[in-house]
């Protein structure tokens, strides 16, 4: 995997080649099938999982018992590092959305790795900071604006991190249902359906089963940033 291109912002993306090799060789190989949990919210476990391939979803339970999608994790991401540092219970559930290959690293081995490789320790801190900043930024982005604007912001974020070039545009290769997208942007499923219909009508997005294709990135960003003339008119009328 030395020549693999890792998504921007993931832990492995921050590492030097030597530190990357040390991390990928640590622990033991494990595989998860779609629907299997890597970690469960509230459980007392402290090992970390380095995703080598596939995609996992981060979910949590609201105070009224509703399960909501909080974020996603892809190849290059580390899962479970908070519990590895503070020994606390898992703060969320992480579930394989596709077939996922990981390196499972126990807490003692992970701590030894951080001591032996300062670059891994710095990168882990940077990765955790990036996650927190990203979560804060997306919370702000999805707290204001119409469903169309919030959806455009989410799709722009996903395309930046996980987009794969294709002849038709940029494919977001992350399997998300409309219900999960609704959780991520804080909207109802009917609102998400209408927002997708609007973006398709503007030819900014094409949808496939659990996949989205960004056909016009510039238009999508204009809608997300409220710089699009039609969106400004719609906002003024609302």
Question: What class do helices, strands and sheet pairing give?
Answer: alpha+beta
Estimate percent helicity.
Answer: 40-55%
Overall mean pLDDT: 87
Spatially, the strands of the biggest sheet line up as: 1-8-3-6
Q: Count the helices. How many?
A: 9
Number of domains: 2
Brief account:
The chain has 238 residues and is an alpha+beta fold. The chain has nine helices and twelve strands.
Task: Describe the overall structure.
The protein has 238 residues and is an alpha+beta fold. It folds into two domains: 12-137, Jelly Rolls, CATH 2.60.120.10; 142-237, Arc Repressor Mutant, subunit A (Orthogonal Bundle). The protein is built from nine helices and twelve strands. It has helices spanning 17-25, 81-86, 107-116, 118-141, 147-162, 178-185, 189-201, 217-224, 229-237, and strands at 28-32, 37-39, 48-53, 55-61, 67-74, 78-79, 93-96, 100-105, 163-166, 169-172, 205-208, 211-214. Helix 5 crosses helix 7, helix 5 packs across helix 8 (217-224) and helix 6 (178-185) crosses helix 7 (189-201). The termini are far apart. The relative contact order is 0.13. The model has no long low-confidence stretch (mean pLDDT 87).
Question: Helices and strands in order, then pairings?
Answer:
Blueprint: H1 17-25, E1 28-32, E2 37-39, E3 48-53, E4 55-61, E5 67-74, E6 78-79, H2 81-86, E7 93-96, E8 100-105, H3 107-116, H4 118-141, H5 147-162, E9 163-166, E10 169-172, H6 178-185, H7 189-201, E11 205-208, E12 211-214, H8 217-224, H9 229-237
Antiparallel strand pairs: 1-8, 2-7, 3-6, 3-8, 4-5, 4-7, 9-10, 10-12, 11-12
């Amino acid at each position: 995997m030395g020549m693999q291109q890792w998504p921007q912002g993931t832990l492995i993306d921050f590492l030097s080649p030597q530190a990357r090799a040390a991390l990928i060789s640590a622990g033991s190989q494990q595989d998860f099938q779609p629907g299997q949990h890597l970690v469960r919210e509230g459980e007392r476990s402290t090992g970390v999982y380095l995703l080598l391939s596939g995609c996992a979803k981060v979910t949590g339970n609201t105070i009224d018992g509703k399960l909501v999608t909080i974020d996603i994790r892809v190849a290059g991401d580390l899962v479970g590092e908070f519990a590895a540092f503070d020994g606390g219970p898992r703060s969320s559930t992480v579930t394989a959305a596709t077939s996922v290959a990981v390196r499972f690293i126990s807490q003692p081995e992970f701590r030894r790795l951080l001591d032996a490789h300062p670059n891994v320790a710095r990168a882990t801190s940077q990765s955790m900071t990036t996650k927190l900043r990203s979560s804060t930024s997306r919370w702000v982005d999805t707290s204001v604006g119409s469903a169309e604007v919030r959806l455009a912001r989410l799709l722009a974020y996903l395309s930046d991190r996980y987009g794969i070039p294709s002849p038709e545009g940029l494919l977001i290769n992350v399997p998300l249902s409309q219900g999960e997208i609704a959780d991520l942007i804080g909207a109802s499923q009917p609102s998400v359906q209408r927002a997708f219909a609007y973006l398709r009508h503007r030819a900014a997005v094409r949808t496939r089963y659990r996949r989205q294709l960004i056909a016009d990135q510039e238009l999508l960003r204009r809608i997300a940033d409220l710089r699009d003339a039609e969106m400004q008119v719609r906002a003024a009328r609302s």
